[in-house]
């Protein structure tokens, strides 16, 4: 049963991604990317990664969508049709994809308990972490204790990105407040 | 044959999503669309990791008092939790850059921005 749900959700995601490439209305693309994130969150539940699922649902489907919508409000709603079609990107993508598919051929199959990934540090986390760290949720133990420095690095990245966003946008707010700057401030321009 | 296809199906869809994101980044001129493509690419990497961590017949990695002994691998979940949050931080930074570029150039299309740049270089 899990396999059927997995196959169906994966197929939905593939369709959503291809529609997102083809659509030119950025508003519709952002809505679809919210759906895409929600589908991936459901898939994470099916694949037993519940912590990842609720982070993806809150952060990926929630915050990302809000960020993108506010960007669209400050910029344009539509994408301009291309002036000419260039075949090079498609060829590059197809060749890279074919090479990657070739690389999967000797990978351990999906859900195989004997795959090498399950025989390195994972058994130690599963057996010892409830005793060594305490929380019954092993993901919490690994995140906060065994790989605590990763989490520290993560907060550093978020802090830096936050400062970057503030620096980039603070200048534009200041400029917008100054009235006689020559150029008209960006209104709700749309192009078709 | 069918077993191979079912066993590798997840990875193939992951590659399809990855290439969809990659194509959007390299083929589309609109900067906002490029960031959305980058997001698709990111999600495909998350799915790759979580698919590899899945164990057939296992349960979520939370200690079961009734004594389940087969758990899904907790390590990919931890790595991807970090990656999701970092991904949103970089998306926010990218979108802030998009807003700033729109303000300076009045457009988000890559070729139009390059034309404006060329013109400015010519005047200087």
TrEMBL record, chain A:
<feature type="transmembrane region" description="Helical">
    <location>
        <begin position="6"/>
        <end position="23"/>
    </location>
</feature>
<dbReference type="Pfam" id="PF20501">
    <property type="entry name" value="MbhE"/>
</dbReference>
<dbReference type="Pfam" id="PF13244">
    <property type="entry name" value="MbhD"/>
</dbReference>
<keyword id="KW-0812">Transmembrane</keyword>
<keyword id="KW-0813">Transport</keyword>
<keyword id="KW-1003">Cell membrane</keyword>
<feature type="transmembrane region" description="Helical">
    <location>
        <begin position="88"/>
        <end position="105"/>
    </location>
</feature>
<dbReference type="InterPro" id="IPR050616">
    <property type="entry name" value="CPA3_Na-H_Antiporter_A"/>
</dbReference>
<dbReference type="InterPro" id="IPR046806">
    <property type="entry name" value="MrpA_C/MbhE"/>
</dbReference>
<feature type="domain" description="MrpA C-terminal/MbhD">
    <location>
        <begin position="11"/>
        <end position="75"/>
    </location>
</feature>
<keyword id="KW-0472">Membrane</keyword>
<feature type="domain" description="MrpA C-terminal/MbhE">
    <location>
        <begin position="115"/>
        <end position="181"/>
    </location>
</feature>
<feature type="transmembrane region" description="Helical">
    <location>
        <begin position="28"/>
        <end position="47"/>
    </location>
</feature>
<feature type="transmembrane region" description="Helical">
    <location>
        <begin position="53"/>
        <end position="76"/>
    </location>
</feature>
<protein>
    <submittedName>
        <fullName>DUF4040 domain-containing protein</fullName>
    </submittedName>
</protein>
<feature type="transmembrane region" description="Helical">
    <location>
        <begin position="155"/>
        <end position="173"/>
    </location>
</feature>
<keyword id="KW-1133">Transmembrane helix</keyword>
<dbReference type="InterPro" id="IPR025383">
    <property type="entry name" value="MrpA_C/MbhD"/>
</dbReference>
<dbReference type="GO" id="GO:0005886">
    <property type="term" value="C:plasma membrane"/>
</dbReference>
